[in-house]
Design a protein that fits this description.
This protein is of the alpha+beta class. Helix content is 24%, strand content 28%. The chain contains seven helices and ten strands. The longest helix is centred in the N-terminal third of the chain and has 17 residues.
Length: 212
């Protein structure tokens, strides 16, 4: 009896797993843009702004000469990754989820022109139910992820009234300050052995899930 019950439960779970329609959003059907800088170029996932800007020949190699310093405008700017219209989403799904396996780091996410969520942690997975948004989306849905400048945002956090202060010795080895106010790889703000690119982008593969 117990074996039959376990087999029935396993069959139910397997049916739910195989009923999922998983659409990978990794690849080259993306645009990287910054309207203030009048920049728009093809992009890919996973990636980050420096890599795509270099591939588009907007910037030279970040590792060449003094480009660690000459290209600081990239770190001080916000960058938006916008998808091509997402097709093959099943209209009869019971729910549709966006799953982000890695976002670096401060983001504002929009789907079908509607705000979905904001994130502030590079080291975790995020998932959001966008079923209601998709139901009201008339055209093929477009996903947009705006990545805020980590140096700017951490400076704003540090300037908040009553904010905790830190000894100068903690900051001295870093080219950008206030790294302690973010959940992001600390050496992104520079170190004694590394450049300070403060990268921003979808650093791990991004998925969209629809469950029937």
């Amino acid at each position: 009896m117990l074996v039959r019950r376990i087999a029935a439960i396993a069959a139910t779970l397997l049916s739910k797993v195989f009923a999922q329609n998983i659409i990978s959003l990794s690849g080259h059907d993306w645009i990287l843009s910054n309207s203030d800088l009048n920049i728009s170029c093809p992009a890919s996932l996973p990636s980050q702004a420096h890599l795509d800007l270099h591939a588009c020949q907007v910037i030279g190699s970040p590792y060449y000469g003094l480009n660690d310093f000459n290209l600081r405008f990239v770190a001080w700017a916000n960058w938006t990754y916008t998808s091509a219209p997402i097709s093959n989403l099943q209209a009869n799904s019971s729910s549709t989820w966006l799953v982000f396996n890695g976002l670096d780091t401060f983001t504002s996410i929009s789907f079908c022109g509607e705000h979905v969520a904001a994130t502030n942690n590079q080291f975790r997975q995020y998932y959001f139910d966008v079923s209601a948004i998709l139901d009201d989306c008339q055209d093929d849905p477009v996903l947009s992820v705006n990545f805020g400048s980590a140096p700017k945002i951490t400076q704003e956090i540090a300037d908040e009234p009553g904010q905790e202060t830190w000894p100068y010795g903690i900051e001295i080895m870093y080219e950008f300050s206030n790294r302690q106010f973010m959940r992001k790889e600390q050496n992104d703000f520079g170190w004694d052995w590394g450049p300070a690119f403060a990268p921003a982008g979808p650093w791990y593969v991004l998925w969209n899930r629809g469950q029937i």
